[in-house]
Amino acid sequence: MNLTENLVQEVQKVIVGKEDVIKNVLMAILAKGHILLEDIPGVGKTTLALAFSKALGMEYKRIQFTPDVIPSDVVGFSIYDKKTDSFVYKEGAVMCNLLLADEINRTSSKTQAALLEVMEEGSVTVDGKTYPVPQPFTVLSTQNPFGSAGTQMLPQSQLDRFMVKLSMGYPDFESQVNILKDRQTEQPLDSIHEVVSKEEVLNMQQEVIQVTVKENILRYITALVEKTRTHELISLGVSPRGALAVNNMAKAAAYVKGRDYVVPEDVMEIFVSVCAHRVILHPRAKVSNTSAEEIIGEIVRETKAAELV
Asked: In this protein, which residues make up the domain named ATPase AAA-3 (predicted)?
């Protein structure tokens, strides 16, 4: 059993029946991406983040976004120190390895932008001084699709910064029974052990970068992306940033399976989770109640990789 399998099994101690979600989160972390979880309350989003932080030996912080959270809560601020007669930087929530940004859509656009800028740049700038965030660094953001009164939904340009958008959903019947069993007398999170250190995570991220993607796979990714830009039910297709995210996530998918090269199945496996949140649907799609996931899935099924070799 390799390291990635050990990591998945460790997180499964607390997240029951959601192996696909766990693997996608792991792949996004290894691909140096950020994750958006859009889901109903109470399905284990916070538990998922905590479990990964423990298994990966990463420093964890959580910020609960509300309308009164301001950018300095996220990135930090300078405060005058009378002893040294100078301004001292006080760290914000982003100064960690794994940040759970809970209900990001409940805060102001300005605060959202502060977080998303850090996600893109990997550093914060306060009073003209730049401070890099610790490495590895991953943001796991959540947003609630229901009860949106008083919230600020993320605009498309900011959604594009997340490598994947995932949904955990309700557990199935047997998984729910197991969850109830496991929590009768103890907290399963206490049983999570560190499988790899932060330094090993950084090494794994470098190994993912070295995974080979041949030209026929690049053509396959491009063909898929192009179809999102010309599809009759999509008004805005996948951006070049999105195409790069597909490439990087496919590398991570291959790595998790123990390969140092990408095959078309790796691309097919991750394309919907990487791209569905990056497109804007035509009004006709909404009228017919067709989701972005359904359209992207159809594009994957209809595009034959073998024809692009």
From this structure: 34-164
